[in-house]
Fold this protein.
Amino acid sequence: MNTLALLSCVCLLLNPRVSTGFAPASKLSARDVRSQVSFPNRIRYAGESQLWSANEAVNGDILISGLDEKETPSSNITDEIIIAATNDDPSAATQQPQSTESLPQSQAEEEEAKPSFPLVLWRFSRPHTLIGSALAIPSISLLAAPTYNAFFTTRTLVALAYAAVPSLLMNLYITGLNQITDVEIDKINKPYLPIAKGDLKKSTAIGVVLAAVVVSLIMSVCNPVLSTSGLQVALWGSFALGTVYSLPPFRLKRHPLLAAFCIVAVRGTIINAGFYSHALSAAFSATKEAAAGFGVLHCLLNDWKCAFSSLFFGVFGIVIALMKDVPDADGDRIFDIKSFTVRIGQKRVFRTMKNLLVALFGVSGGALMKWATMSPTIGATTRRGLTGLGCLLAGYFTYKEAKDVNPEDSGEVYDYYMQLWKLFYLSYLALPLVK
């Protein structure tokens, strides 16, 4: 037994494939040299096709794996040692430059060109909301016009432009303030936003929103003709509700009913009735006395077109706002934002908002098609009939697209949410056709 053990040890010592950490340097072959060289990651031997990988040393020995046919690939190479092995006489080892694949991710990101400030500012403005406001103002003005031809006058276009500039600045203020106060939440829910991503400093963002709101509010009062009561209601109302919605200590977004009230008020009454009143006062009134009679409340109570647009887009606004909370459930839950989604669950909110929007399109479409049959002219019948048909198709699209959406998949819900914004845009484009 002892003899067999002794013979085994001798065989192991004579085997060149076994690590020989105690063998004399003069007796080492090319393969033995491999076992005594410290390999960082990957070893290639000149004249050989195999790739060798080194394991950690155990008791001073370095074990080499894959000595024959086995190849151990490595994708992350920090350096590469080439050992020339001609016959049994190894030459000095040389080290090649580092591979570009090994650059740290953070260093690679730093080398990427940062986006320009105008691009960052565009993303900071939340373009989908900005586009919605930009479409709403001319659409409501055209709805308020006594005739389609009356809209295309210099006076109307000036009044429209004067309302659009401060309104878009106010939109920037509201969406920007929400991002400034939600940085930590956005790092979870929307890490691509400029502040959360690090593309925009918080101090710079504060300067941008302050400049936007100051210019917007000044424009609402500085012109004796164009700074109408309707424009003031739209801008100051949006400013007040947008501020208490996001800013502590109010932060009404933490309370679902109060948050819903803010959204319905801004997207419904304040924007639609405010700009409707502004259009009548600044563009379509013959005298200053007549313009004074077109207040926001007067338009809501006495003009069915103003009431219809305020109701329709108020409901649409609440659908968009609550649908937005569905993919944000994780961050809202962590930071104690008691949205409806956090309180009753993503599935219930998603289904309820989908059904509400389908019902809105269905009822509006049916009413418009019924109304088209009672219109006094062929033109009005055609316009209202086509708009009603469009509403029914939009309702079908809303229902159909929701069938394949998993309410608990944030990516799928967000894609569906952005599709709703497209329907929102189309609704404003179609609004003047109901005249």
